[in-house]
Amino acid sequence: MATERTFSIIKPDATRRNITGKIIDRLESAGLRVVGQKRIHMTKEQAEGFYAVHKERPFYNDLVSFMISGPVVVQVLEGEDAIAKNREVMGATNPKEAAPGTIRADFAENIEANSVHGSDGPDTAKTEIAFFFSDGEIVG
Ligand code: GDP
Question: Which is catalytic among the residues 5, 85, 117, 125?
Fold first, then answer.
């Protein structure tokens, strides 16, 4: 298994409830290392661009509004098999279907306000990291 990097967002429902540390603890405890991190308030244009792949989905406008409803923490995570490992620690999109002990099972409010984002494959990880981070902002 190779060392990989993946992109993560701690979403506005989590920053609002001041539980970013609890979420980072889950990531670090799973062996993921935070090699890039910043707290930002996404612009509408950034949120629309980031989620452009979902443009045709019925929840797109709601999702964009939610993602700009408060600050988020964007992260680059590094580790063995980081992309799959992060998805495992996050749990299923819908917290009702998320495995016990996962971030979404324990912290998500609902299918939209589900506390975290994680890249779903190597190509998206690369694109999503580059969307928010310059090379100099990632320190391994
Ligand atoms: P993810 O990869 O597990 O984050 O899931 P998706 O890529 O399918 O969806 C992206 C994000 O859109 C999710 O994390 C949710 O915040 C939101 N989302 C997904 N499905 C729904 C839905 O059915 N309704 C609403 N309101 N939001 C959704």
Answer: 117
